[in-house]
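Project standup — Tuesday

K.O.: blocked on the structure for the chain from last sprint. Re-posting the sequence here as requested.
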Amino acid sequence: MSRPRYIRPDPGAAVPTTAMVMAAGIGKRMRPLTATRPKPLVEVAGRTLLDHTFDRLRAAGVQRAVVNVHYLADALEAHLQHRVHGIEVIVSDEREQLMETGGGLAKALPLLGEAPFLVVNSDNFWVDGPTDAIRQLAARWNDDAMDALLLLVPYARAHNHGGQGDFHLDAAGRIVGRRKPGRVAPFVYTGLQIVSPRLIRDWPAGPFSTNLFWDRAIAAGRAFGVVHQGLWSEVNVPGAIARTEALLADG
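H.V.: unblocked you, prediction finished:
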């Protein structure tokens, strides 16, 4: 691994025009709310999680989105058709088999194009700080040095996060490792990242996690993180909805 070097942000950098929206999960921990609706259609502050996601994408200038579907896929597709405007939507159909996060990316790769693209989980909720989070990622992206650039939040500001963190960063913003068992990692993945298509290669058959690609990028010194400047909340259980809405009410 080369010596860490800070990569200066480019405020004028273009936002990726394509996003992969991860929306195929079953949402077991969100039951009973997900007994009759897919998790992305659960509402927070009067709008579905999926609508919040598309609000952020639209505001940043994203032009097209590939959305994977599996659980209650018909309801998701109907919502996308009738409620999402201003962004071209393409469905990656996983009805026959849920491919998990890494497998979902691999299956959708032919639809995503050859340029770096955004990946966003539709079950996390964020509010921008002084800078639009997506534009913050775009400003930091350096295609020569990076294969993945993740938006991270400090563990202490990871509202409703039930885990023990995800990643360690060095002074240059490079991800130097993932959490070890029994220890807390200082940064939590927010569910938003930029990925280069060159990272999505040599994958196994069947479902698998994005960790396969992340570990590959970390080992090569080509995985980086940006610290989110605004609010972030994990919405993974029913009780997290009210707690997230209370955070918004408190400003």
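K.O.: great, moving the ticket to review. DSSP finds six helices and 13 strands in the chain. The longest strand covers residues 187-195.
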